[in-house]
Amino acid sequence: MTAAQPLTFHARVGEKVRDRRLQQALQKARPLFVGKRARAVAALAEDQLDFEGLRDAGEEIRNRVLADLDVWLDIFEERARATGAEVLWARDGREICEQVIDVARRHGVAKATKSKSMLSEEADLNAALAAAGIRPVETDLGEYIVQLAGEAPSHIIAPAVHKSIDQVEALFAREHGRPEQPRSSADIPAMTAEARAVLREHFLSAEMGITGANFLIAESGSAALVTNEGNGRMVTTLPKVHVVITGIEKIVPTLEDFATLMRLLPRSATGQTISNYVSLLTGTRREGDGEGPTKTVFILVDNGRAALLGSPWQDMLRCIRCGACMNHCPVYFSLGGHAYGWVYPGPMGSVLTPLLTGLENALELPRASTGCNQCGSVCPVRIPLPKLMHRLREEQVKRGLRPRRERLMIGAWAWLAGRPKLYRWLAARAARYLRWLAGDHATIRVFGLAPAWTEGRDLPVGPGRTFHELYAARKRA
Ligand code: SF4
Questions:
Q1: DSSP for 144-184, written as a single string
Q2: Structural domain tally of the chain?
Q3: At a CB cut-off of 8 Å and minimum separation 6, what does 174 contact?
Q4: What confidence tens digit (pLDDT) does each residue in 213-233 have?
Q5: Of ligand 1's atoms, which has the minimum distance to the CA of residue 156?
Q6: Deepest of 115, 386, 438, 452, by most Cβ within 10 A of its Cβ?
Q7: Which atom of ligand 1 has the smallest separation from the CA of 347?
């Protein structure tokens, strides 16, 4: 498992907030995501369809799978093998890399085209492939951009949402060997065509295609791939080998269940009724097929997921990776995805990253929330994200993982709060002292105390008496 970078979140927050280009890119993107989803949900209501009922159904399907995950995985394995596919199991990121490289070597692969796969990000697969002499080429446009930039995706469905057009132009000019030119949003189709021309060569020459899967369908042994670009189809049909890497929780029992979830996924992710491409990939090329791989390999990955089954965190395994929670999160849209330090950003990352990489490796993430519950209210499978973040905070306290200074301060406060007479006496002295310090002003500048709060804010000062004193005075009057 690729570990989250310790304390990345706090270390990067200031940097991201001050990054003007990043802020502009984020402010542009947010209303698009939010508006499109809202319109898609409203359009359903106009057709007398109940989005909330669909959310209930989505939650029920995902819970049904998780209740008997081992059974559904067995059924999937049996059906997938019956269609000619090979099924492998990986415990962690290291095993994913070993298995992909082994398959590549068995089939003489020098280049692998890739369609978006978050599991390959969890495993840092591109680095492992490159070290093994196999060239990985990302073909989703956003993934292609971040690969050229040497960066990780910053959003699970819009990997390059943090990039401006100028930054992409500079990258394309450098990597495609041409002079840079001024660009505006009107040039996006031309820039996309340029990337497409470069990628076409890779599609035609790669011996292996690597994808994730939005869902694995147990009854047919198929992988479902939901994309908005044709790259997914190129990656899964042109190379002779297709490797699907996906988490064990991605199973759905039947095609009918898949159809229900497909009413939720594109609407929640991009506000579309249906994505441009929905592919159901079953087995290998059959006789008479004009295209398709002669070898299909499923790598079903645990990487910490099985340990969540039956735990207080199981709800998180319902996630269908739509990105709606981050699209509606004020914290995500203030910082962008890289601040979160690992593969999954936003509220789902604030829960999933500590669970998959260890609570001690992502201490700040469960606190990266305003508690507004925007995420919980839009999640298509009703994952109670704020509740899970609260639980993670409790767990941090129980395991003594919070910083010593914070523990001491909270311990001192708890001691004082348990002695109400002393608390009131001290509070009354503090109120008078602050009033005296402020003089004629309504606020004072506090230095040193809780610097993250007080460096940029002045402390409002009350009338020099505590609430209790004021209340008692009012009752007497
Ligand atoms: S937690 Fe919910 S809203 Fe967030 S990505 Fe997962 S399914 Fe979508």
A1: HHHHHHT---SSSS-TTTT--HHHHHHHHHHHHTS------
A2: 2
A3: none
A4: 999 999 999 999 999 999 999
A5: 5
A6: 115
A7: 4
Q: Do 221 and 82 touch, CB atoms closer than 8 A?
A: yes
Does any domain span residue 77? yes
Query: Among the atoms of ligand 1, which is closest to the Cα of residue 348?
Result: 1
For ligand 1, atom 8, name the residue with the nearest CA.
322
Highest mean pLDDT among 9-13, 70-74, 331-335: 70-74
Residues 6+ apart with CB under 8 A from 392: 351, 354, 355, 359, 365, 366
How long a stretch of residues is the chain? Answer: 477
Does residue 252 sit within a domain?
Answer: yes
Final residue before a domain boundary, out of 282, 307, 332: 307
- Domain ranges, residue 224: 53-307
Cβ–ligand 1 distance for 264 under 6 Å, the answer no
Enter the DSSP assignment of 51: H
Domain assignment present for 403: no
- Residue ending a domain, choose from 307, 332, 348: 307
> pTM of this prediction?
0.90
Q: 69-73, 145-149, 409-413 — which is least confidently predicted?
A: 409-413
Q: Of 269, 247, 258, 248, whose CA–CA distance to 379 is shortest? A: 269
159 and 284 both lie in a single domain? yes
Token output for 283: 């087995």
Q: Residue 241 sits in a domain of what CATH number?
A: 3.40.50.10420
To test the pocket of ligand 1, the residue of 268, 350, 377 to mutate (highest count of ligand atoms within 8 Å of its CB) is 268
> 157 CB under 6 A from ligand 1?
no
Inside any domain, residue 74? yes
pLDDT bin (cut points 50, 70, 90) of residue 43 is: very high
